[in-house]
Design brief:
- 2 copies of one chain form a homodimer.
- Chain A is elongated, with a radius of gyration of 23 Å.
- The first copy, chain A, is α+β, with helices and mostly antiparallel strands.
- Chain A contains 9 helices and 19 strands.
- The first copy, chain A, folds into 2 domains: 133 residues, Creatine Amidinohydrolase, Chain A, domain 1, CATH 3.40.350; 217 residues, Creatinase/methionine aminopeptidase superfamily (Creatine Amidinohydrolase), CATH 3.90.230.10.
- Helices cover 31% and strands 20% of the residues of chain A.
- In chain A, strand 13 and strand 14 form a beta hairpin.
- In chain A, helix 6 packs across helix 7 and helix 8 runs antiparallel to helix 9.
- In chain A, the strands form 6 sheets. Chain A has a 6-stranded mixed beta sheet, sandwiched between helices.
- About 2% of the residues of chain A have low confidence.
- Chains A and B meet through helix 4 and helix 7 of A and helix 4 and helix 7 of B.
């Protein structure tokens, strides 16, 4: 495990050197975790050509054994009480005679950045940009393993829900129940707030659960994802409550199902990141549904539940082997409800079987 | 309600003028909410001498009625798809011929700040600093009412827990149960993650619930707070499990109880913000317990569960009437556990009865 982290730090160091920086200051939590295997709140990682130094906040309590459970193999420094760990790291950089220090300008506030000037006097501050986010896009086998388990946990929680009585229960209670079940099945936590939308709330891209109760005849859209060892996936399914879905419900579900399938089938290494979204969107448009403004139907997942690459109609990158992404189109008819279906899949070449589906709960329009 | 928000915007405008800025760009979510009454994710408020303009992200969905539930009385602008609302607001500022625009440098990342340069060409960017945070410190009656309800909700959840069986249940399950009960009693959500620590996990300032089960003889520390209409409070209580607490447990609880009482009794308008912490810390020190490094025993609460003022030993401000704060000292003995007791109180002058206690669950060492 620590070899993987050391290798990632090595790749980042090489990137920095190529860009003219002799060190990097990493502050974004998911990036610190990616490079060290641990994620204490407020920590900063200083990475020079010669060494890596993890700077911890003063207030961090040790665990019961009196030891720090963090990166036992990495040199550590504790910041002064109330000191920003980025400042302490910048001081260390100056001590190590760093000349050009690349920082994460998309993470540091203007105030924090200004505060680096004094401790890092003599050190020139450059922008690292999203270099670590780019490193994170292609996952290694360990990471894919963790994503598979996260997906399994979500599927288990969803499966249990499908066997229980839903009519009369509120969206909020169902959401809390799903979260509890994911944790019971081994999740660190929910990867993002569980969404349950019933009736006219169904089919929405984002919906905060309310006290509305599930009723016969409703569409029910459930969106959840477990976080396992820091890695999160997403699943969204739409069901119908009661024995006999209406014709418009069967038709809308079929359309969204076909759109989502077109999106999934467009996934392959080398393909434009806009292709899955466009494929799904074309099916919906042919069925008379066009979303304005268009909201991207997918994105990468990993240590952040939403990360690069974005899978939207205007994107200009390419997909790679071993990149996990979501594909989640939907149609929402205000006042009526709708259908959203979302999977997490790993991009794989055709000779390896095509995209690997992680979230395997059935996508059929189950009548519950 | 909207009069209160308009009055707050007026005060901020005056502050800006006094500081040489003719407009302010507010991005920090709690501050946008404080000034407008609403808090759509990613919104920016532009406040000039003549007008207030709320800039919403393009992707914001309307609710079922097709209307925006946000600040119906405030002029609104929707940013372009994928556009940072701060950029759209900066463009508007340029259109309104703003000369000096004060921005929240403690909120905007370096990247976002840089991105304002082009749309706001010709506009000089200044730092607003924590002006809105300072305005938020003293609460009006509406806010105090919301804090009282939040406190009541937490007390209800805690009270119900105390009547249930605890032995054999895990910290995580108890935490999830408490969160569910707070929501059932009307909370928007938990103000912060519920903390339950049993046995050697008890008494810690921050503890993430684990799968450890409650056992006879354990100290049990519970920390929770409901968020109601955006406003959050904090309560922490320590109990003992089983009929007969050990002598060391009775003694430690008495010590922390006395320390916390000294802290509460030190609250008054005009008093230094360091005074309550010092009073509590002195009692603990006399009892043989000195925390190194010292972690502040309290802080303000409001739209953010931790906000100004900080109540720590090195603070240099003064308390004011109608400022709600926490007072929460504790002692944790690694490997053994400990006691933490925390209340939320509103600072009031003696002639109005002294500090108003919001969190009224008993602080006695109940044997459960």
């Amino acid at each position: 495990m620590s070899d993987a982290h050391a290798a990632r730090r090595e790749r980042l160091s090489e990137y920095c050197s190529a860009g003219g920086a002799d060190a990097a200051l990493i502050t974004r939590p998911a990036n610190v975790r990616y490079l060290t295997g641990c994620a204490p709140c407020g920590a900063t990682l200083l990475l020079t050509r010669e060494r890596a130094l993890l700077v911890l906040p003063a207030e961090l309590p040790p665990d019961d054994t009196g030891e720090h459970p963090y990166a036992a193999d990495l040199p550590r420094l504790t910041a002064a009480p109330d000191q920003d760990t980025a400042e302490a790291a910048a001081e260390a950089a100056a001590r190590f005679h760093v000349a050009d220090l690349a920082v994460e300008e998309h993470d540091l506030t203007v105030s924090r950045h200004r505060a680096l000037a004094a401790p890092a006097a003599g050190v020139r501050l450059l922008d690292l940009g999203r270099a670590v986010e780019r490193l994170r896009v292609v996952k290694d086998e360990q990471e894919l393993g963790e994503l598979r388990i996260a997906a399994e946990i979500g599927d288990q929680a969803l499966g249990e829900l499908l066997e229980s009585i839903l009519v009369g229960r509120t969206e909020r209670h169902l959401a809390m129940e799903l979260e509890r079940r994911m944790i019971d099945h081994g999740a660190d936590r929910a990867g993002y707030p569980v969404s349950v939308g019933t009736g006219s709330h169904s089919g929405r891209g984002s919906h905060q659960p309310t006290d509305r109760r599930v009723e016969e005849g409703d569409f029910l859209t459930v969106s959840l994802g477990a976080q396992y060892r820091g890695y999160s996936v997403r699943t969204t399914r739409t069901f119908v409550i009661g024995a006999a879905p209406a014709a418009w419900q069967v038709e809308l579900h079929r359309l969204v199902f076909e759109a989502q399938r077109a999106g999934r089938e467009a996934l392959a290494p080398g393909v434009l990141t806009s292709a899955p979204d466009r494929a799904a969107r074309e099916v919906l448009r042919a069925g008379g549904h066009e979303e304005q403004p268009p909201r991207p139907f997918g994105h990468g997942v990993g240590l952040e539940v939403r990360e690069a690459p974005q899978l939207g109609p205007a994107e200009m990158g390419k997909l790679d082997n071993r990149v996990p992404v979501t594909v989640g189109p939907g149609v929402h008819l205000p006042g009526r409800g709708g259908v959203r279906i979302e999977d997490t899949l790993v991009v794989r070449p055709l000779e390896e079987g095509g995209p690997e589906l992680l979230t395997i709960t059935t996508k059929e329009l189950l009548a519950l």
